[in-house]
Specification:
The complex is a heterodimer of chains A (520) and B (371).
Chain A: H1 12-27, E1 35-40, H2 42-50, H3 61-75, E2 83-86, E3 91-96, H4 101-120, H5 151-169, H6 171-183, H7 223-226, H8 229-247, H9 257-264, H10 269-290, H11 292-311, H12 317-328, H13 337-353, H14 358-363, H15 367-371, H16 380-390, H17 393-400, H18 403-408, E4 411-417, E5 422-427, H19 430-441, E6 448-456, E7 461-467, H20 475-489, E8 493-499, E9 502-508, E10 513-517
Parallel strand pairs in A: 1-3, 7-8
Antiparallel strand pairs in A: 2-3, 4-5, 6-7, 8-9, 9-10
Chain B: H1 5-18, H2 21-29, E1 36-37, E2 41-47, E3 62-66, E4 98-104, H3 105-115, E5 129-140, H4 150-164, E6 183-193, E7 196-203, H5 210-230, E8 234-241, E9 245-248, H6 250-255, H7 264-278, E10 285-292, H8 299-313, E11 320-325, H9 334-342, E12 348-353, H10 359-367
Parallel strand pairs in B: 7-8, 7-10, 10-11, 11-12
Antiparallel strand pairs in B: 1-2, 2-4, 5-6, 8-9
Helix pairs in contact in B: 3-5, 5-10, 7-8
The chains are: A alpha+beta (520), B alpha/beta (371).
């Protein structure tokens, strides 16, 4: 795999630490993939981080951009990357050369938290390569769960596939096409892996049947009374509408826009290949942003427990505390996923240890009783292990965020103030905070976009629908994305959405962008 | 070491230089970079190119945050970037094209140098003046109380208390004893001082409008920044002229609007005079910069300018730079005259600055020689 592999193996003293920490992690209940640690210099680290954790990716300028950002941030002393871990089986994790031993130990403990999460959280099941991307029952696992997640190889294969295309088509042409694909990379269906097999497309070659209008049996002279003409007419219209509906394509609105384009857009062979690569990688990275808060929270929870209970000796405590505080710091009122995640997990653990859940707890409105509520159930540990397997960030927040927690953690919601032209704190009220938080997380903060009709206006135009849930699309970006869609579909692109309270249809016909108001 | 990322990185740089020129241009022309922060900190944007996605518009956005504050209080800074859910997707935070980094002016000049591929300047001064300077760089165990490093002292005390078992988390009182104390300590470094002076000359006759002056102002800021990096203790002198020349302070230089005719020779005379009086060429690196719209009063005066340049100024300076700002009124003849007489003289650099976009190119023309 990595070409550094030989030069980057851990030195003996770190290897010892790794064995020790892995043993402690497993004793504590974590169940991990085999994990390979490598040690990198900072520019190797920046390079791999720029590539999203993989030593070999396809060529693209945005990796260079990311590298520059990381390298400059490092050079100006703004930030450095301590650790990186890849969801792969075996998992790979990178340590930064020259970090102190305390840091390296902290990173290792943190990494084992992540690896356990990769292995057990249901979202990551969609990165199993041996299921063909379809996991119908994400919860149940065979007892010897050892999936194929050789993504390092896969990404490297993607790299050479695209390099080969570049060899034939030229870098500018391919890179430009990749840019278009990347504009669409968030148009995927996060649940597709778990939704079972997609229904097959109905065959087009069937002749539309002449529809017989059902009529009640009646004697001839009663006919016009029992089956009045206008009623028959109405029935006929209804059935035709029904038939039109089924002949619509796609039959149901399609959320996996990328898949739809792959299957139906008039792409050249190489374009098809590139788009397929982008789509597969988009699905690989999706679980990481679906579970950012939980994943970081879980890893932080475990590094903090393992470090303070088992690993550290007295001389290291202060350095550890210093760095742990840095990881958990919030600044400028922004949410820190590490902090939010770990605090919420601890909150859950405490609640289940003390039995603060269930109907009795919910129904109790005696403040004093609630405060001292302790059934000594000790179910906390079991509960958080369950949570780490069965939830994603949205369901995690939805189910476990409590008013107490919001108050203790000083959470608030903020919004744009037109009057003062700035973002302002709006409220600390539980419902509002939770709503904002969920909105921010739902669908990874992306708008819901569906392919509605591939033969819009009977002219082969593509019609997409933005399912408006309170926030408008960013117009200039939407226009750019429509150009990219047009590049793939070759026919005009239409998007229905709502702008400033009015339903509109955005259109790009290959030359011109127009916005038309629709009647509500 | 060669990295795989180099190829992608150089493509990105290529895009930034070509396609995203507007970005660079934008911040130069709006003078964002001149907006200093603190004493001598400047924020420089790291170029970022955003890949457009279907995403939400800015104004209705909002989110959840954490921290102190009452409803109605402003959020610190922008809110993009750090949201959970952004995950590992590179550059997915909307609305932010440039990442701001605070750097010192010195670093900024270095970046400018790198960006424009400017060569380091050859020092011409012979006599080196050595300056002693104290730098606080290390820590020691003894020292005056005024230099005590509180944080280090505290940490030592905490370490000692923990290791001797006298620290109690319930009553976390940490009392330093003398051996815990740490003090900042300095080293004296000898620092050679090179002497350099920039003499700015600007035509302020009626034909130089506000826009022309803005160009001169931005361009001199960058030149200043670069030369400042090359020489500690750079001096600047300012001369304005119409038909007569006079020396002014920086403020006046950039804000005066005069009217009347143009006699460039008057400025060159004054410049030669300044050098005579204050800056012996064997000790000083001298950089005269002259900006004008190129509309001199008469051919005779132009010949006089050439005369002064040739005999009095050029022999003593590192480089003479003439920048001609395009103006709707001037004939722009002067730059042609200068080129005709000094076209092959390496010490004379000329540049025509058509508009704000041309500033970058012009700086490169001026400073690209490394004289």
């Amino acid at each position: 795999m990595s070409e550094f592999a030989l030069k980057t193996a851990l030195p003996a003293y770190l290897r010892e630490q790794q064995n020790r920490i892995q043993k402690l992690a497993v004793e504590a209940g974590l169940d991990v993939f085999p994990t390979v640690f490598e040690i990198l210099t900072y520019d190797q680290m920046n390079e791999i981080a720029a590539y999203g954790g993989f030593p070999n990716r396809y060529p693209h300028w945005r990796f260079g951009m990311e590298y520059e950002r990381l390298a400059k941030s490092y050079e100006y002393g703004l930030s450095k990357i301590y650790e990186m871990v890849i969801n792969n089986n075996p998992s790979y994790a990178y340590l930064l050369e020259g970090n102190s031993l305390v840091d390296q130990k902290l990173v290792m403990a943190h990494v084992y938290g992540h690896v356990d999460f990769f292995k057990h959280n249901y979202c990551f099941r969609q990165t199993d390569l041996d299921t063909g991307g379809r996991t119908v029952d994400p919860v149940r696992k065979p007892s010897s769960y050892d999936p194929n997640r050789r993504w390092i190889d896969k990404m490297a294969n993607h790299g050479s596939r695209i390099r080969r295309i570049v060899g034939r088509q030229g870098i500018n042409k391919v890179e430009e096409f990749i840019d278009h694909c990347l504009s669409l990379e968030n148009l995927i269906d996060l649940h597709s892996a778990f939704s079972g097999r997609r229904p097959k497309r109905p065959l087009d070659d069937e002749e539309p049947k002449v529809t017989e209008i059902p009529r009640l049996r009646a004697k001839e002279y009663m006919e016009s009374f029992i089956n009045p003409a206008e009623f028959l007419e109405k029935q006929k219209k209804k059935m035709e509408a029904e038939r039109d509906k089924t002949s619509k394509f796609p039959e149901h609105p399609e959320r996996d826009v990328l898949l739809f384009l792959l299957e139906h857009a008039p792409l050249e062979r190489w374009e098809h290949d590139v788009l397929e690569v982008i789509r597969e990688e988009a699905y690989y990275f999706a679980p990481q942003w679906q579970t950012k808060i939980m994943n970081e929270g879980w890893a932080t929870y475990w590094h903090s427990r393992l470090m303070t209970e088992k690993i550290l000796d007295a001389s290291e405590i202060i350095d550890y505390a210093d760095h742990a505080a840095g990881v958990l710091a919030t600044s400028n009122g922004r949410l820190n996923p590490y902090k939010l995640g770990v605090e919420l997990l601890r909150h859950i653990e405490e609640r289940w240890d003390r039995g603060q859940f269930g109907k009795e707890w919910e129904d109790c409105d005696d403040l004093e009783a609630k405060k001292n509520w302790n059934l000594r159930l000790g179910l906390g540990k079991k509960k958080i292990f369950e949570v780490r397997a069965l939830y994603n960030d949205v369901t995690f927040i939805d189910e476990f965020l409590t008013p107490d927690f919001v108050r203790e953690q000083k959470l608030f919601s903020f919004g744009w103030s037109n009057r003062n032209e700035r973002y302002e704190i709006e409220t600390r009220e539980f419902k509002a905070v939770k709503e904002k938080l969920l909105f921010q997380l739902t669908n990874g903060g992306n708008p819901f976009i569906y392919v509605e009709d591939a033969n819009h206006d009977n002219r082969g135009e593509l019609l997409l629908r933005h399912d408006h849930q309170g926030q408008d699309l960013r117009q200039d970006y939407a226009k750019e994305v429509m150009r990219s869609l047009n590049r793939m579909w070759k026919r005009p692109i239409n998007v229905t959405t709502i702008a400033e309270g009015k339903p509109v249809m955005l259109r790009y016909d290959g030359k011109e962008q127009t916005t038309r108001h629709l009647r509500a | 070491m060669s990295l795989k990322i180099d190829q992608d990185h150089s493509r990105f740089r290529g895009i930034v230089r070509g396609k995203i020129r507007q970005n660079l241009r934008k911040y130069v022309s709006q003078g964002e970079l001149i907006g200093r922060k603190g004493k001598d900190l400047v924020s420089i944007p790291i170029p970022q190119i955003d890949i457009p996605h279907f995403s939400f518009g800015d104004k209705q956005r909002g989110g959840a945050g954490q921290g102190d504050g009452d409803p109605g209080d402003p959020m610190g800074g922008g809110q993009d970037g750090d949201e959970p859910g952004d995950g590992k997707k590179a550059g997915s935070s909307p609305g932010e094209h440039a990442l701001e980094v605070d750097v010192t002016l010195d670093e900024l000049a270095a970046i400018l140098g790198e960006e424009l591929e400017l060569p380091d300047i050859r020092d011409k001064g012979k006599s080196k003046i050595i300056n002693a300077k104290d730098r606080y760089t290390s820590i020691r165990r003894v020292g005056p109380e005024s230099l005590r490093n509180f944080k280090r002292t505290y940490r030592e005390a905490l370490k000692r208390q923990i290791s001797t078992g006298t620290y109690s988390p319930d009553n976390p009182v940490v009392v330093p004893i003398p051996s815990d104390k740490r003090y900042r300590s300095w080293k004296t470094e000898a620092e050679p001082v090179a002497n350099a002076v920039i003499i700015y000359m600007m035509d302020v006759s009626g034909s130089m409008g506000d826009e022309q002056k803005e160009i001169v102002r931005i361009e001199s800021f960058w030149i200043d920044a670069w030369l400042q990096k090359q020489y500690k203790g750079l001096e600047s002198r300012y001369i304005i002229h119409d038909a007569v020349a006079r020396e002014v302070d920086r403020e006046t230089f950039f804000h005066t609007r005069e009217s009347g005719g143009t006699m460039i020779s008057s400025a060159y005379k004054l410049c030669a005079q300044l050098i005579d009086d204050h800056y012996p060429p064997e000790e000083w690196n001298i950089y005269p910069f002259h900006f004008s719209d190129g509309d001199n009063w008469s051919m005779d005066d132009t010949l006089l300018c050439v005369e002064i340049l040739k005999n009095k100024i050029l022999p003593r300076v590192n480089m003479f730079a003439y920048g001609q700002v395009e103006s709707p009124y001037g004939s722009g003849q002067f730059v042609k005259d200068v080129r005709e007489h000094f076209g092959r003289d390496g010490r004379v650099v000329t540049s025509e600055i058509r508009d704000k976009d041309a500033i970058i190119g012009s700086i490169k023309e001026f400073l690209g020689k490394g004289n």
